[in-house]
Write a structure and sequence with these properties.
The protein is mainly alpha-helical. It has a domain at about 40-130: Cytochrome Bc1 Complex, Chain D, domain 2 (Orthogonal Bundle), CATH 1.10.760.10. It is about 45% helix and about 0% strand. The chain has five helices and no strands. The protein has helices spanning about 25-35, 45-55, 55-60, 85-95, 110-130. Helix 2 packs across helix 5 and helix 4 packs across helix 5 (about 110-130). The termini are far apart.
């Protein structure tokens, strides 16, 4: 797939082909990437809606953390193990230290990737907004 592929249609591509994703998931992913704001997370995006449906109950609507349940704030890069989308994706897929449930049995791979990108933008948006 992509630049490392032997397939003639993708060998010289700079971005891999995502034909392994369902068409609806590719469309959702493309819409999300096209709609990314310059900084911060957009709660009205498809990923924002996934966050609201699956994460906000514990982490708060804006990722500010759960006061009653102790879920960490997602707006602080140091709290979520480095903040990069790959680390967040692994946390969503496999859980973390018995407190963060894994989501791979409830969300598709595309949904997990969307959420990982979305959550990784919480702290980056907060940093850009800081004086």
């Amino acid at each position: 797939m992509g630049i490392n592929s032997e397939h003639p249609d993708t060998r010289y591509a700079e971005m891999p082909v995502f034909d392994w994703l369902e068409r609806a998931d590719r469309t959702t992913l493309a819409e999300y990437v096209a709609g990314l704001p310059a900084g911060g997370a957009d709660p009205e995006s498809p990923a924002g809606m996934l966050f609201e449906e699956n994460c906000a109950a514990c982490h708060g609507e804006g990722g500010e953390g759960g006061l009653l349940n102790g879920a960490p704030s997602l707006t602080d890069a140091s709290v979520i193990y480095g903040q990069d989308a790959t680390t967040v994706e692994q946390t969503l897929r496999h859980g973390r230290m018995g407190v963060m449930p894994y989501w791979s049995d409830r969300l598709s791979a595309a949904e997990i990737n969307l959420l990982a990108l979305y959550v990784s933008r919480f702290a980056s948006g907060a940093e850009e907004a800081a004086p």
